[in-house]
Write a structure and sequence with these properties.
- The chain is mainly β and about 110 residues long.
- About 0% of the residues lie in helices and about 45% in strands.
- The strands form three sheets. A four-stranded antiparallel β-sheet has the order 2-3-4-9, with no helix packed on it.
- The mean pLDDT is about 95.
- Bound molecules: FE2/S2 (inorganic) cluster (FES).
Length: about 110
């Protein structure tokens, strides 16, 4: 099922925002120059929200230990991160952004 996250105009280019899912997961939605991308929000190295990190050259830099991941692929690019992030296809319909999932709260 497609879950609406926000309107495309709600997230400016080069910004990231966290969205909570009903099953306890959270996704980070990124707006890069070439489109929208989504990953798990939780860093695979610790309890950090990647939406609190910084986007640099297509990577999200974790605010805790400055590890990083490729936003488009989820691949860990900078230590201490080595486990990849799960990624989610983002679908745009009539200017609204969706990911696949169970249900969005809030
Ligand atoms: S918690 Fe993200 S790099 Fe350590």
């Amino acid at each position: 099922m497609k879950l609406r996250l926000c309107s495309r105009g709600d997230l400016p280019t080069c910004e990231v925002r966290r969205f909570e899912l009903a099953d306890g997961r959270a996704v980070a939605l990124y707006h890069l120059e070439d489109g929208f991308f989504a990953t798990d929000d939780l860093c695979t190295h610790g309890e950090a929200s990647l939406a609190d990190g910084e986007i640099e050259d297509g990577r999200i830099v974790c605010p805790y230990h400055l590890g990083a991941f490729d936003i488009r692929t989820g691949k860990a690019t900078d230590a201490p991160c080595h486990i990849p992030l799960k990624t989610y296809p983002v679908v745009e319909i009539d200017g609204e952004l969706f990911v696949e999932g169970e249900k969005v709260e809030g």
